[in-house]
Amino acid sequence: MNPVFTKGGKKKEVLGTMKKHGLLLLVGFALVLCVSCGGGGGDESTTQEPIKIGAVFSITGGASWLGEPERNTALMIADQVNAAGGIDGRKIELIIEDTEGVEDKAVMAVNKLIKQDKVCAIIGPSRSGPSLAVIPIAEENEIPLISCAAAAQIVEPVKKWVFKTPQKDSDCVVRIYEHMKTVGISKIAIITGTTGFGKGGRDQLIKLAPEMGIEIVADETYGPQDTDMTAQLTRIRGTDAQAVVNWSIVPAQSIVAKNMKQLNMDIQLYQSHGFGNIKYAEAAGDAGEGLIFPAGALLAVDSLPDDHPRKALLMKYKSDYMAKFNAEPSTFGGHAYDALKLVIKALRSVGPDPAKIRDQIENTTEFDGTAGTFNYSAEDHTGLKKDAFEIITVKGGKFVLYPAVIMS
Amino acid sequence: MGISIWAQILQYLVTGVSIGCIYGMVAIGFNIIYNSTGIINFAQGEFVMLGGMVMITLTTGAGVPVFIAFFLTTLIVALIGGVFERLAINPVKDAGVLKLIIITIGGSIVMKGIAMFIWGKETYLLPHFSGETPISLGSATILPQTLWILGIMGVTVTLLTLFFRYTLLGKAMRACSANRVAALLVGVDVRRMVFFSFVLSAGIGAIAGIIIAPISMMDYNRGFMLALKGFSAAVLGGLGNSTGAVIAGFMIGILESLGAGLISSGYKDAIALLVLLIILYARPSGLFGSREELKLKSF
Fold first, then answer.
1. Which of A2, A57, A176, A283 has the highest CB neighbour number within 10 Å of its CB?
2. Is there a contact between B269 and A65 if contact means CB atoms under 8 Å apart?
3. φ/ψ (deg, to 5) at B254
4. What is the nearest CA distance from B155 to chain A, expressed in angstroms?
5. Can you tell me the distance from the alpha carbon of A66 to that of A59, in angstroms, rounded to the nearest whole number?
6. Residue A184: exposure state from Cβ atoms within 10 A (0-12, 13-18, ≥19)
7. What are the tens digits of pLDDT across the range A144-199?
């Protein structure tokens, strides 16, 4: 906390000479804000300065259920690393900023982290829109940024300083289409949210359909705060679609499942990996049973075979998270886990130099994370292949591996 | 597979009514405070959110039966509305309309923040009052919960209209809105009326939150969007007119649903807002508001 206080203190001196109580009050308020957002794991007992890592998550706002597990996870890992003696005797200090899931807040936060806090790397943002918005800043200032968002555009084309840990949405589409082919579905309707995640998914669904032999017969959207999708679904019901793909990351996606049931539609519902939060399955209730979606293995860790290469890692993350926060971990927290672990791994070998960290991450191979085994390269800043997605279904209100899937 | 276009349109209309009754219900709350103070209470969406959240806590958390929890929640939120008025609105001396409106915006941010601390950021569910088995209306289906909303809304609007037209208290509240000074001169305790109006509208907001929560789900952040759509309905119906608000709510809902179904779901909000703008351009006082009345208001 110390650095934050000294900064606030300086501000106070400058403005104090202006002898305006109103201003003083304002500064006091700003100080409180600084302290409350600043957070972090600094420790006064270390003589060496801590290594500063920035984190930008949508902790409040419409996508807070992404940012909250991400922040929790990042704090948990920072604590674990510091408790074990830090990196070469230096503690890590996580400076967490809240984007509220909004582009301009994300831009401000990243600017602050780079210019004011002088962090050596940044993890986040949580959402695709804000991630795309902050890419130019990371590039210009030459600070490695490891996004926790899904859209393939974040790393396609490859940006020198930008990486991401979640699976690409295009791979998710491929897994859905592959599954459709195994069960003989060729005509589909898509319904997507109007958020960055939804739009990114819609683009990929439309782009990949022709080459995979899928025909999209209806293309509907809905807003993040909408409460009823029966109009869109009625339109879909009027087509000869054999399945519906819903691509969204907001709670409203549970309503799609409910509305389909309300309209007595019995065609298969596919969801994106944005469905990867057990709350959504709970919200959908009976209507969610049997829907299919690709997601990281973490969600169905209990039903993974024991010889799964990352089962132990996933089980540990899950039990640590549940012990500390008394809540189920989600794949989103897992993305922050992977991002921070990557940075820490790079720090251990090259120290807090942004350029060296970047090179180190780009050369990371065979790195086991929650989302899969990462193999980064100069051409691939996602590091994951489509097999990082498992096909998951909802059964008895729980996420389980879809049994009949042939791994390709 | 083909389902006839008329069957589809029937479903769009039913869907529109389902969405519209949510908007209308929220709009009614705006009207009460407007009717007694002439201000738009931008914290109205927060009362709706609180209604939903308190109800969920009482029923699924504390196990209170739905029927009792309904009244208990309404009472609790009405009290919150009263406290809000006493703390934030009442102490402001010689308050202009604009000043008060800005205070309500501040109030909504505070309430949202407190709700976030209490309930966190998760989305909560409230079980439907009488199951989720859809009811068939010809080729269209409707959820039983929508019927609950329609029924409770009908009762609320009727009672409110009677209250404002025929009771002394209701008339006094309306007098405050029409002309504050004149109301004072004839012996109306304006400040008390303002207090009552906040209590009443918070209570109505809570009822709205309770009955729509099973359909819309509820989280601390829900209030704003609900308030925005509700506000549109209130303006379209003519501010202060509860029946107008309900009809306008249905109109917006049906426009959205037909827009989504027949034209494009990407433009459904734009279509609804465009129609709203056109109507307001032609009739600034709203569909059911009177032009003369609007001129007498202070803004």
1. A57
2. no
3. -65, -40
4. 23
5. 7
6. exposed
7. 999 999 888 899 889 999 999 998 888 999 999 999 999 999 999 999 998 878 88
Å between A264 CA and nearest CA of chain B: 9
User: Tokens for A268?
Assistant: 């298969």
Whose tokens are 């008025």? That residue is B85
Dig out the tokens for A28 from the structure: 């006091």
Q: What is the ipTM of this complex?
A: 0.78
Pairing mode, if any, of strands A51-57 and A122-123?
parallel
Q: Say whether residue B17 is in contact with chain A using an 8 A CB cutoff.
A: no
**Where are the alpha helices (H) located in B137-189, listed in sequence order?**
144-166, 168-178, 180-185
Q: pLDDT tens across A232-276, in order?
A: 999 898 899 999 999 987 778 889 999 999 888 999 999 998 888
10 Å Cβ neighbour count for A378? 10
Rounded-to-integer distance, Cα A211 and Cα B267, Å:
29
A10 Cβ neighbours under 8 A, 6+ residues apart: none
Confidence (pTM): 0.76
Least confident of A197-211, B98-112, B146-160, B172-186: B172-186
Which residues in A have their CB inside 8 Å of a CB on B?
60-62, 64-65, 68, 191, 194, 220-223, 225, 227-228, 230-232, 234-235, 237-240, 251, 254-255, 258, 261-264, 279, 282-283, 285-286
Q: Which of B3, B18, B219 lies nearest to residue A238, judging by beta carbons?
A: B3
B261 touches chain A (CB under 8 A): yes
C-alpha to C-alpha distance for B236 and B247, rounded to whole angstroms:
9
Greatest Cα pair distance, chain A, in angstroms, is 76
> Which is nearest to A228 in space by CA: B16, B290, B55?
B16
Q: Taking CB atoms and an 8 Å cut-off, how many pairs form between chains A and B?
A: 96
For residue A258, the chain B residues in CB contact (below 8 A) are 132
Axis-axis angle for helices B5-37, B168-178 (nearest 10): 80
Closest alpha carbon within chain A to B268? A222
Structure confidence by residue, pLDDT tens digits, A268-292 = 999 998 888 888 888 888 899 999 9
In this structure, chain A runs to a length of 408
Q: Beta A390-395 vs A292-295: how paired, if at all?
A: antiparallel
Q: Around Cβ B278, how many Cβ atoms within 10 Å?
A: 10
Task: Return the pLDDT at A302.
Answer: 85
Contact indicator for B88, B43 with CB cutoff of 8 Å: no
Contact A263 B18 (CB under 8 A): no
Q: Inter-chain contact A65–B116, Cβ cutoff 8 Å?
A: no
Interchain pair B11, A61: CB under 8 A: no
